[in-house]
Structures are given as structure tokens and as C-alpha cells.
């Protein structure tokens, strides 16, 4: 879904339902070791480092790189709202905002993620890229759950 805000910024919304309980979803979303396993839009990319200080005013950064070493960048930001098992919002280092809502539904978790589009890449490319990362997250959590990985 794509919306245009009052300030003419474009908000893109992506979503998924993960077949796992909220505590497992939250852990996979917020713990650096998990983030490194799912945070990529395609199989030729990976996250080599992840740091996460999940609190208001805390920072996160993921070092994302092409597996062939041809390109890489840091994706980071600062949290401005955190509600355990419910909601995370942050401002990316380029001043765009992101909001993620987690809605538990029995043994499933519905995730809605909205972010401000950037101006250098086409909207559909941004939407597809972020959705691919969210799809990787879903796959990672569900595969780990199926293997019985529970704390």
C-alpha cells in the first residue's frame, strides 16, 4: 500500500503474518544474531554485522553487503518509540521514519511495517525490496520454529 502524507512524503506499507507466537517473532526481530540471518532482500546479499540497543533513544545498525564484496552500506537509525511485543518506531539515519506494529493472533503474529519512501529509487522497487526482507524474516522465523528452536 502506498499513501501520500500531508507533507507530500510517500509512505509505503508492507505486511505479513508469521506462523509463530509473538515472543519468538519479537526475539528474531530484535536480537542481532537473528537479524544477521534474515536481513537481506535477495540471496546475493547478507548482513555481516548487526547491533541493536532497543530502547527510546537507542541506536541500531546493520552492515549490509553484497556477497561478492562489490557494494555495502550501513542501515541504521534511532528508536523513538518501543512497546514490548506491540510497536517499534524509529528515524533512519537519513531522517525518514519507520513504524512497525506487531499484532499477536493466537500462535501467529501479524506485522505491519510503514516507512517513508526515499526519492532516489522507484517506489515499486522500494516496496518490493522491503517486502522481500519481511518475507525472509517470516521464512526464517517459521523454519526455526519448525526445527523446534525455542528458548
Write structural notes for this entry.
There is one protein chain. With 151 residues, the chain is α+β, with helices and mostly antiparallel strands. The chain has a single domain (2-145), classed as START domain (Alpha-D-Glucose-1,6-Bisphosphate, Chain A, domain 4). The protein is 26% helix and 42% strand. It contains three helices and eight strands. The chain has helices at residues 22-30, 32-38, 123-146; strands at residues 2-4, 10-18, 45-52, 59-66, 72-83, 87-92, 97-105, 108-116. Strands 1-2-8-7-6-5-4-3 form an eight-stranded antiparallel β-sheet. A hairpin with a 4-residue loop joins β6 and β7. α1 (22-30) packs across α2 (32-38). The relative contact order is 0.23. The mean pLDDT is 93. InterPro entries: ASHA1/2-like_C, START-like_dom_sf. Residues 19-142 form the Activator of Hsp90 ATPase homologue 1/2-like C-terminal domain. Pfam families: AHSA1.
Amino acid at each position: 500500500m502506498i499513501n501520500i502524507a500531508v507533507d507530500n512524503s510517500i509512505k509505503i506499507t508492507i505486511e505479513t503474518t508469521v506462523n509463530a507466537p509473538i515472543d519468538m517473532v519479537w526475539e528474531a526481530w530484535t536480537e542481532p544474531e537473528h537479524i544477521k540471518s534474515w536481513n537481506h532482500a535477495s540471496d546475493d546479499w547478507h548482513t555481516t554485522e548487526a547491533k541493536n540497543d532497543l530502547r527510546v533513544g537507542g541506536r541500531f545498525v546493520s552492515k549490509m553487503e553484497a556477497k561478492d564484496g562489490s557494494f555495502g552500506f550501513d542501515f541504521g537509525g534511532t528508536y523513538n518509540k518501543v512497546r514490548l511485543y506491540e510497536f517499534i518506531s524509529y528515524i533512519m539515519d537519513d531522517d525518514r521514519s519507520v513504524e512497525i506494529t506487531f499484532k499477536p493472533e493466537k500462535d501467529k503474529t501479524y506485522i505491519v511495517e510503514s516507512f517513508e519512501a526515499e526519492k532516489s529509487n522507484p517506489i515499486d522497487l522500494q516496496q518490493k525490496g522491503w517486502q522481500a526482507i519481511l518475507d525472509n524474516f517470516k521464512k526464517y522465523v517459521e523454519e526455526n520454529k519448525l526445527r523446534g528452536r525455542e528458548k
